[in-house]
Amino acid sequence: MNETRASLLPDDIGRWLTEHESTLLKVDPSIADWTRQYLRGHVEHTASIIENVRRIAMSGEVESVVDIGAVPGHVSAMLKRAGFVVQAVDIAPERSKGLFEALEIPFHRVNVEHERLPLPDDSVDLVLFCELLEHMQSAPFHVLGEIRRVLRKGGHLLLSTPQISPLMRWRFLWGEDFQDDLVTEFAKVDSIGHMGHFRLYSQSEVVHVLAHMGFEVVGIETGGKLKAHDRRWDARLLRRLVPDRMRAQIYVHAIK
User: Fold this and answer.
1) pLDDT band at 231 (very low <50, low <70, confident <90, very high)
2) In this model, does residue 243 exceed pLDDT 80?
3) Helices 43-59 and 74-81 meet at what angle, rounded to 10?
4) How far are the Cα atoms of 20, 109, 121, 129 from residue 24, in angstroms, in the given order?
5) What's the mean per-residue pLDDT of the chain?
6) H helix runs in the chain, sequence order
C-alpha cells in the first residue's frame, strides 16, 4: 500500500503546480500573491520534499502524515491526492481554508512553539516539519517533543531548513550579516500571517538538537540553489570546492 501511494506522487512538480494552480490558490485574498510567488519560486524545494517522502514511503509503511506549517497547503494537497491520510497544522490555517476544505484535509490551528498538537500519542507515521525551524522565536524543544509524542515507534520526521553556507561564514568575518533583515522578517507577521526568518542553523546544530530530543538521524541531503546569481570570486570558488555545502536547504530524515 505504501508503494502505491508513493507511486502516485507527481514526478514533474512544476507542471503539477501549474496544472492545479486554480485549486492551490483557494486561499485568503491577503496571501494570494504571496502564495502564487511561493509556489513558482520554490519548485525545486517542493520537489525535494516530495522525493524524500517518496523514498520514506517506499522504505516502510506510511499512511498518516501531519504537515506542520502547512500553509500555503500545496504539499498537503499533493500528499492527499496521492492517497495519504493528511492533516494540516499551522499557526493560521484559515489562510488556506478554501484549499483544505476543497480537498477534505483536516486542519488545526496551533502555535507549535507553545501549544500541544491535538493528536493522540503514537498515532502518526510521518511528520513534515519543513521550512519552519528558522521561523521560530523560541527554543524548538517543545514542538520536537510534541512531534516525538505523536509519532509511532519507528515513525519518521522529515525536517528541512535553510543552511548556513561557507560563503555566509566567510563574508560574516568581513562584516556582512548572513541573517535576513529582522525588520522585514518581523513585519511578515502582519503581511502574510507568520514570522519570517528569525534564526539560521548549521547541519551540526540541527543534528545535535534532534539527538537531544531523542531522534535518530538516518539521512541528510542538501538541495536548492543558494545565491546562484552571485558571481563574486568567493562564491564561484566555494561552489567549485564545496558544492553540496553551497545549496540552499538541508533535508534531515530522522526516526523515533
Assistant:
1) confident
2) no
3) 40
4) 6, 19, 31, 20
5) 91
6) 2-7, 13-19, 21-24, 32-41, 43-59, 74-81, 97-102, 141-150, 166-173, 182-191, 203-212, 233-241
Over range 166-184, report the average pLDDT. 79
Which amino acid is located at 117 in the chain?
A: L
pLDDT higher than 70, residue 222: yes
Distance CA 239, CA 82 (A): 36
Domains of the chain and any CATH numbers: 2-255 (3.40.50.150)
pLDDT in tens, 18-62: 999 999 999 999 999 999 999 998 999 999 999 999 999 998 889
With a pLDDT cut of 70, the percent of the chain lying above it is 97
Distance CA 227, CA 162 (A): 12
Place of cell 497547503: 73
User: CA torsion angle for 124, 51, 110, 194 (degrees, to 10)?
Assistant: 170
Residue matched to cell numbers 519518521: 156
